[in-house]
Amino acid sequence: MIEFWLAAGLLLLIALSFLLIPVLRGRRAQREEDRTALNVALYQERLAELQAQFEDGVLNPQQFEDGRAEAARELLADTEGVGPARVSSLGKALPLLAAVMVPVLGLGLYLHFGASDKVELTAEFSQPPQSLEDMVSRLERAAAAQPESAEGWYFLGRAYMAQNRPADAARVFERSAALAGRQPQLLGQWAQAQYFADNKQWSEKTQALTDEALRADPKEVTSLGLLGIAAFEDKRFAEAIGYWQRLMNELPEGDQARAALQGGIEKAREQLLASGAKIETAPQAKSLASIKVSVDLADAAKATVLPGDSVFIFARAVSGPPAPLAVKRVTVADLPITVELGDVDAMMPQLKLSNFPEVILMARVSRAGQPTAGEWVGRSQPMASSTRELQQLTIDSPDKQ
User: Fold this and answer.
1) What is the model's pLDDT at position 285?
2) Residue limits of the Cytochrome c-type biogenesis protein H Ig-like domain (predicted)?
């Protein structure tokens, strides 16, 4: 923030110079004009003396003319280099008044229309927060400075949940959903905050939010987890198992939440057994598809690429949407490299590797950092998405799109 005000002050000094320099020049010109007037007065006084001496007979006509010529030469020497008299209609008061008003008016306009608060926030966000309270305070000020930013309200809601302030979180999630559209993920977060704000009492509002979220996205994880919790608390253990099992199917292997979910499912089964109910074997979570691929450059490509060029490695469905199913980004300097493309790398939940039977592997070098266009590309033959063998992929063809 100090750097900003220093820069603003420097610009104001430059602006003031355009107003004050003419005033200073005017004072210098006035001094020149005063000196010229004095020299003219002295010249006229000298001529009067010569005229008096001539009339009194002290000087003869030749001496009188020589004296007049000498006085004229002295006057010309003293006034040589002096420009014509300056004519000014502004005077001194107006430029000085403008010199005072320019910075005052500029500062007032900036404080009213400017973004000093955003500049300060940007500088503050460049430093890591010292505590959760510090982070929440920053997010609150960021949301106030940019009230139309759905992302700002969303992150503030997550911070409120971390502070165990679900009522405040529900309020800002509602604001975020109003700005960004009623996206399933936002509705799920809003429903979760509302549930805890109501002291874990299920309400019609919470039910409506989760229903809307799952209609838009049947795999929305927050809503599935929340419905499982509500069903378990209401002793509807079979429903809790169903919701949690659906959630398990969406979580990648190794996710820490899987262990907690599995524990909840086991407790629900124990409660069902204790009540004498029969338990149907829950379907196992669908295994995640994953393909390992080793990527290298052909000699022809090595001669033209740069170490910092981006390399996009991705899988695309043989029959399906053109969007990549899984993507990894490296650089030319990382090659050769072996990566794993799988469901965990999906760009969208509905576009997973396991959802398509056949895929093609591709790798593209793009100096501009664009995954859709570049200089060199390599393609594999179609293969099953369940392939487990290591695949070799060489970037060997000019990318002609």
Assistant:
1) 44
2) 291-396
